[in-house]
Design goal:
The protein is of the alpha+beta class. It has a single domain (11-205), classed as Jelly Rolls. The chain is built from three helices and eleven strands. It is globular and about 40 Å long.
């Protein structure tokens, strides 16, 4: 595992406090600029070579293409690819840091590249049904340089299911990582005006009988979150 990608030890990552407070956080120093750019090249190459497929909703036999809900294209990351493996190593450090701080018991991680071509979107949704426990903690990492508000494609974050207004609009800028509770945080991808690249991922637990909690079990010095 290449821990050289980490700017600071996991115990010092300052997004931990906000994750506990709100159930979501935006961080910009978890993945190195060099790795961020390499992942961008990887995503662009896969896209140009038509290696990404239309994304749907549901899993296995319930999987269907619903263009009225989402219009992105995806491809799963693989440890057989060096750059992708380096990103998965960083996410393993995130898993260890979260497990050290909270009673979550995160066990495994899966992720895919995603591209939203001009006009593509993903309507408001949550990554897991309440109590389903198939996804516990979600991540979205952005790979876009020189992104402006006029380019669209913002991630809208809502702090509760019944909320009508987003509490945060996150531009999909290179190096930005969003982490949130899969069962609790509604979100949507607003229509992009140009190709928008990202990596979406999910941490799972091994025992579905254990309820998740963000109760801090190891305190850290409060600092201003790097958002």
């Amino acid at each position: 595992m290449n821990t050289a990608e980490l700017p600071v030890p996991p115990q010092g990552w300052n997004w931990i406090n906000q994750l506990a407070d709100t159930g979501w956080v935006v961080a910009r120093t978890v993945v190195s600029p060099e790795l961020s750019r390499a992942l961008r090249v990887e995503a662009e190459t896969l896209h140009s070579e038509a290696m990404l497929e239309r994304a749907g909703i549901g899993r296995a036999g319930d999987h269907t293409i619903k263009s009225d809900i989402r219009r992105d294209k995806t491809r799963w990351l693989s440890r057989d690819e060096e750059v992708q493996a380096r990103y998965l190593d960083v996410m393993e450090q995130v898993r260890l840091a979260v497990n050290e701080a909270f009673y979550l018991g995160l066990f495994s991680y899966e992720a895919h590249f995603a591209v939203y071509e001009p006009g593509a979107f993903y309507k408001r949704h949550m990554d897991s049904f309440k109590g389903a426990r198939n996804r516990v903690l979600s991540t979205v990492f952005y790979l876009n340089e020189d992104w402006d508000e006029t380019d669209g494609g913002a991630l809208a974050i809502f702090d509760r299911a019944e909320a009508e207004e987003a509490v945060e609009l996150v531009l999909p800028e290179l190096g930005t990582l969003v982490i949130f509770l899969s069962e609790d945080i509604p979100h949507e991808v607003r229509p992009a005006m140009r190709d928008r690249y990202s990596i979406a991922g999910w941490f799972r637990v091994n025992d579905r009988g254990i309820a998740p909690s963000l109760q801090v079990v190891q305190t850290t010095t409060p600092v201003n979150p790097d958002i």
